[in-house]
Each structure stands twice: as structure tokens, then as C-alpha cells.
Amino acid sequence: MKEFYTVGEIAKIYNVSTDTLRYYDKIGLLKPWLTGGNGYRYYSKAQFETISTIMLLRSMETPIETLSSALNGSSPSGITDALDQYVSNVDEQIRQLTDLKRDAVRLKKNISDVCFSEDVSVEEVPELYVFSKPFGQDDELDIENIRLVNALAQKDWTTRAGIISTITRENLMAHKFHTYDRYGYLSENPVSVSSEFFQVIPPRTCIVGTARVHSVEHAEMDDVYMKCLDYAAQNGWRVSDDAIERNILSLYAGNPSNPEMFFKVYIPVERT
Q: Binning pLDDT at 50, 70 and 90, where does residue 114 land?
């Protein structure tokens, strides 16, 4: 193995541009070992470990200032601190990606349920987080409260939530399927909010139906609710709480005045 290497050779070995190496030289982060009589600058093989460390930490987005301070210190703590920070950042990215993957899987399942099936089923619905206000208020989805939820969730909670309406048990049993009680957001993603408009619904058994809606009046929902109530009566279930009507997907095909909307209906039940 030879002793000295040109800027171009180091660039090839470490897959880095010569401009980057010259910049590191200029700021004093990584200076060549010597300058030859021909004016060429050479790195020594004794610098390879330092070069590897710099390239690795830079690939981890470690700031140059941090690198310079750490490499010029007498203790390795600067390097270990930088690595700890990187590991912490990666853990956070993994958490975020895991959350996104879970949301993608959940949305795909909901879309598959409502778009490709008209079956009524009994499901164990997980804990749900609901932010809603009385239906018909001018500020049903007021901006300040939405910002509050997003801030407390430390992410765009509403982006991952679905729009819902609720129907009281009394109106549901009276077949008043268009007399809505509340309007707002629902998500399976946890959030803790101190607000009169926020509630956590514990896991429960629900009869679940799906609907494809083409009209603004949602006339198609009547058949879905009747189908769910008939299923409950025929299979020994009693409606135990308010129903939730959840918008899963809206397709407009370029024409907002002619939407095709897909809904999921949750009706809490218990054995008679």
C-alpha cells in the first residue's frame, strides 16, 4: 500500500467530490498531509481513519462545526455525543415512519372495506379519539381548536383523522338517520387534549356497515342504517350508544359537484 494519495484518489476511494475535499481543506476540517514540490496536495494513509470518521458523520448530517470541534479535542466524547444525537434522530424518524406505515395500512383497509364490500359485520373497534362540536354550529371545525389539537399531538393530527358525524341512539332507533348530533374529527391515533369538545371512546363492539354515496343529501345512508339495525335484531344485539358515520374517501373525478363518497358506519352494540 502506498503512503500518499492525491485529492482525486481520495475522492474516488471515499466517493466524495474533489470540491468537497478542497472545501474541508479550506476550512481546516481535513487538511492534506503535505504539499509536494509540484504543488499537489497529498493525504497520508495515516489519515484514512480520520477521513472515514468525517465522511460517516457527515453522512449522518453532523454539522461541520460539531465535527471540527470534536476532531480537534483531546477526548472522544465529542464523537460519541454526535453519534448519540444521530441515533436519537434515527429513532425519531423510525417512530414517524412506523406511524405513517400504520396509518397507510389502516387507510388501505378502510378503503378496501368501503369500496369493495357491502357486508355488515361485527367488529371489535379499538380506542377512538374524537374532537367534535354540536352539529350545525357555524364553527364546527374552528381553526383555533384544530390548531390546539395539532400542537398537543406534536404533529398534524387532523391530517390523519377522518371527518365524522354522529347520530344519537334515540334518533337512530327512531330511524332519524339524517338528524345529526355532532360533527368533527375521529382518529385511532392517540392525543390528549383538555377540551370540552374532545373525548376518548374506549374499545367496544360495533356493527359496522359501509356506504357509497352519490348525493349531497346522503339518501343512500338510509339503507345502510336499516341493514345494520336489522342485522342487530336478527343476531341478538342491542344498540348501546350513539352511531358514528365516518367519511373514509371522497372521489370527485374532476367534478366537485358530483362526488362519489365512501362511508363507514359504526353502531355500538351489546348482547341482549
A: confident
Is residue 267 assigned to a domain?
yes
> pTM here?
0.71
Residues 131 and 191 in one domain: yes
- Domain boundaries, position 37: 4-74
Are residues 185 and 52 part of one domain? no
Phi, psi of 31 (to 5 degrees): -95, 140
- Range from 142-156, 176-190, 253-267 that averages highest in pLDDT: 176-190
DSSP, collapsed to helix, strand or coil, labels residue 208 as strand
Contacts of 71 (CB under 8 A, 6+ apart): 29, 50, 53, 54, 78, 79
Plot region of 240 (φ>0 → left; ψ -120 to 50 → alpha; else → beta): alpha
pLDDT recorded at residue 144: 67
Confidence class of residue 137 from pLDDT cuts 50, 70 and 90? confident
Does 201 have pLDDT greater than 90? yes
Write out the three cell numbers for 149: 389539537
My answer on whether 70 and 201 are in the same domain is no
Compute the distance between CA of residue 102 and CA of residue 204 in angstroms, rounded to an integer: 21
The residue among 241, 243, 236, 230 whose CA lies nearest residue 271 is: 236
